[in-house]
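Hi C.,

You asked whether I'd gotten around to modeling the 315-residue construct. I have! Everything is below, sequence then structure, no commentary in between.
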Amino acid sequence: MDDKATIKSTRDRWGIVYVPMAGVRKKHRRWHQIKEYLEIKKVQYDYIQSEDYGAVERLTRMYVENGYKTIVIVGGDMAVNDALNGIMSSSVENLDDISFGIIANGIGNDFADFWGLGVEDYKRAIDCIIKGTRRKIDVGYCSYMDGNVALKRYFLMAVNIGLGAEAIKISDECKRYWGKRNPTYIVSLLRLFMRRKQYKMHLKVNDEILNDRLMTVCVGNSRGYGLTPSAVPYNGWLDVSVVYRPELKQMIQGLWMLLRGHILNHKQVKPYRTKRVTIYDTEGASICVDGRTLDYKCPLEISLMPEFLNFIVPD
């Protein structure tokens, strides 16, 4: 089969990357459920399983460069981020024909939750992808240095700096290996929040220069794990929450407000809406992009590409 025939045969097939939940004994059972429903719906697809998060980006890029027009990731937040970066880093210059769909899996998928698609909603997610209702969404990006190499990492949810990034790292590691109800997970997060560590950060938001000791900064294209609850990935803006160090009582109150979606009302939180954030210094604070930790050197530029990617959305 020549190259043109191969591309034609892949246009109407889904390219699926399945990332099973780590630490689960019956990790294939989830895929068997999804596969059974795909067969009932007579969906044409090709499927690759990847247990290595580093391979998801490469596999997704391979699908795009081989002519697949519907890319579906079955996984959690970091798998979605890797798939996004696979699409964005492909050699295909025009991505207007590419559509991106998500079937939530694993310990959670906040971006799928934003659209009302929980982990147990795999049948509804598949039905949505079959129907193919598409919406152009904004894609955020973070430009930074890794040594002497200039790199760019794309995101759909948020860039977290400081305590927020540390919490995401602890949450992912503990839930991945021991489950989110394990006491280690709870104790680790509580110890982190009780420390209320601050970092000397220097950044620019709009025309305002911030040079202060901050606990965490979240730059959100969507809800940002609750720290940017008003952010939506289709208005061409980034929401920024700058969190100063609260007193212990305020910290407990802040955690409750975070869970309730009211964190912007906290006295130690300063919100912004912007097109670009420049980070000059973080005092070595951890940075996570949709949960993926960066090995970086300042400065960093965080911005977005408005209405850039076709995302398959529920009705």
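If it helps when you're writing up: The two ends are 38 Å apart (CA to CA).

Thanks,
B.
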